[in-house]
Amino acid sequence: MLPETKWEYAANLAYGVTTVYDPSAPTLDVFEQAEMVEAGRMLGPRVYSSGDVLYGGEQTPIYARVKSQKDALRQVRRMKAYGALMIKVYQQPRRDQRLWFAQACRDEHVRLTVEGAGELHTDLSTVVDGFTAFEHALPYELRNDVIQLLSRAGTYYTPTLIVAYGGPDAEHYFYQTANPHDNEKLRRFVPHRMLDGLGLRHPWIAPDEYHFMEVARGAAAVARAGGHVSLGAHGQLQGLGAHWELWAMAGDGGRGGAMTPHEALGAATRDAAEKLGFLPDLGTVEAGKLADLIVLDADPLADIHNSTKIAWVVKNGVVFDAATLAEAWPVERALPKMFWQGD
Prior knowledge:
By secondary structure, this protein is of the alpha/beta class. It has helices at 7-14, 27-38, 69-82, 95-108, 120-128, 144-153, 170-177, 184-189, 192-196, 212-224, 240-249, 261-268, 270-275; strands at 19-22, 46-49, 54-55, 86-90, 111-115, 133-135, 156-158, 228-229, 293-296, 310-315, 318-321, 327-329.
């Protein structure tokens, strides 16, 4: 049973997210919802996903048994049949198992990402072994050897600064310095019970103790060396979370060496589309591409925080009022009520 209007999708679209890749979502929900969005029966960004991760822990209900190359091929074909464009391997403990997945994805012509759980050696082994991408932070100060490896291998790095491994993360920084609970626009799209659990009570951390800024410096160094860095916001805070990630990439937190606003916006648009193989159709404003645009009331190159000052969101040529998500063109209609909204 799926809602007619899914608040998570509505929140993201209202904040200018027109395409999303979810690298861990319930298989039996996400692909059906993606088809509903594509058919115009559910409002939201274009939805792509890995479905359930191919998990290596035998104690979990989503355990993916991989004892051979044949097992890996069966698992990849299973997720490809559901509609996964990029498989996600998670906690497969041995390198030979991960190599089997890499070969199976090459054979089936699907992309492959991994979560290395903050283990530098695991992440770097997947880079060497030909994975398309890896999710989450490399939790250390990166030196030139790692920077050059990532830039030359062409692997896509999504640092997910909101939950960056290695120390206090960006999510807690923004709870400490902002107040999402009282954000009028966010309250329009996110159930109040969800906002009650976000940021009202949190530890106070000295600003110079936040570690995500070091991770942001490393990601910027990789991008400037010619590597691929893409934005990913992890999903706890729908809609606004993508902007928090953008701001963290651009150095919100005060430490130098992070991306410029222009570089961070590129990671959120062009490089993210390229990671998914969609750059011919998405990610930049060019003739012949799908008409996805965000119309802003202030310049994010002057101040990256202006990224939330959105007047209009255009997805595939359909124009929405960003404040209310009412469709303004080609037809006028209000956002339908969501299941949690009363009279």
